[in-house]
Amino acid sequence: MDEEKAVWEDRSIKFDIPQIYTKLRGGEVLYDVFDYIEDTKGNPNERGRIMVTNLRIIWYALFNSKLNLSIGYNCFLTMTTKTVLSKLRGTTQALYIFTSNHNSRFEFIFTNMSLSNGRHFSLIFDVYRLYQQSFLYRELKLRTSILQSKQLKILPQEQVYSTIQGIWNLSSDQGNLGTFVLTNIRLVWYADINEAFNISLPYMQIRSIRVRESKYGPALVVSTLDTAGGYVLGFRIDPPERLREVYKEMASLFAIYSSTPIFGVFYERKQEKVDREDDQLRIDNIEEIDNTKTAEINTNFTNYLADDSTSGQREPFYCKQLGFAMEKIRDGFTLKDLWEVIPSQ
């Protein structure tokens, strides 16, 4: 696997990627979309949209798609929501995300700009929790609890294809005899005399699989990506014909996984009904807003409240249209401007 093709979506923060909302990678699943969301700290007053996938959240501005963010779940430190009071939006909800990436820390604040949209951000918390609980699908693990009664603990949607005994791990001078388990998600090796001495390596973290000469003769060599420590793992398999068979099977499983990866985040929505195909939200069903259209939620009322140019209260008068006394309307506004939710023009 080329380094540039490696999965970065869950472990990076990226800004302003062209057409990011149409570029989900293979195996990435779109779970939900939140409209009328403002990136309050980075792009205030820009109405945007949040897309929630199994690897990250994506925010982009609706009227300037060059403004966008991609925040991988692996970068999250803490996440919380707060009820905030704004002159422009009234009482609404804000999502606070604290992150770390490449020795830099970022805080993101996403605010719900719609007064009529009562949706909460709880789905993002649910998906992130599932991501945290599924590290074995994506991370190299050494000497961890992956076996029970000498049997591999099978993960959801994991299938075991081969269990191969008599595999020498060449990480030490004397070598250790053990067993290979090849699945559709990872390769596992564990020592026969000590099950705690084991390796669980997802295909997602493999750079290459080769057969090379070593001081022990021909060996199966597996190199990992830098995100997995950049290890070079060597295994001896006798006789050479068996080595070639194991190599071909492992290379085939690696190629199949690379085309359709499984990241381990399986989320099922139980309440809200959305437009789905195969029980998943499709990017094709996300309607893009035409920048040339002017029909949108009325902002006259919020602008009227936000203007502090007039100090003190204005004199009241009797309004025949409403049938009660009200404060005199400021110049430049009409009763119709403040009353209707959606502008008639």
TrEMBL record:
Its main location: membrane. One of its GO terms (molecular function) is phosphatidylinositol-3-phosphate binding. Keywords: Cell membrane, Cell projection, Cilium, Cytoplasm, Cytoskeleton, Membrane. It comes from the Eukaryota. InterPro entries: BBL5 (IPR006606), BBS5/fem-3 (IPR030804), BBS5_PH (IPR014003). SMART domains: DM16. One of its GO terms (biological process) is cilium assembly. GO terms for cellular component: BBSome; centriolar satellite; ciliary basal body; ciliary membrane. It is found in: Cell projection, Cilium membrane; Cytoplasm, Cytoskeleton, Microtubule organizing center, Centrosome, Centriolar satellite. Residues 28-82, 158-212 form the BBSome complex member BBS5 PH domain. Belongs to the BBS5 family. This is Bardet-Biedl syndrome 5 protein like. It comes from Pseudolycoriella hygida. The lineage of its organism: Eukaryota, Metazoa, Ecdysozoa, Arthropoda, Hexapoda.
